[in-house]
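Tokens for F0F1 ATP synthase assembly protein I. Go.
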Amino acid sequence: MHRHPSRRRERIDTTRLLGWQAAAAMSVMAIGALIAGSEGALSALMGGLVGLIPSLYFAWRIGSVRGGRQAGRFVSNLYRAEAGKFGLTVALMAAVFAAVPPSNPIFFFVAYVAVLFTHWLAPWFKRDRPTPESR
């Protein structure tokens, strides 16, 4: 049975969400460059990448299987993707703090948190803005 378009579930385009995450990281990086110079910008870049790379992995892993008849496989893949994202986050944090400690940890964590909070704002991002024709 075909569903009416107004009753379809709205989904957030993962490319759009990842773009918003990258924009959040770049915004903090620009603020870090203005306030603390290149050290602040580099710290924010590393924090943004520590948040963004696991999200890219998760999106890639989840994108391979859809729901529907393969629901069990989808749920299993979802758990694996989340575990991989968590493990990748821990590994990247350890690598950053062991190999290249951020010179300005505040900008590192602000960029990381900004990338994570983008998920919380995702429902706001998916809202369609009214066009002049629809008013």
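The CA atoms of residues 49 and 60 lie 16 Å apart.
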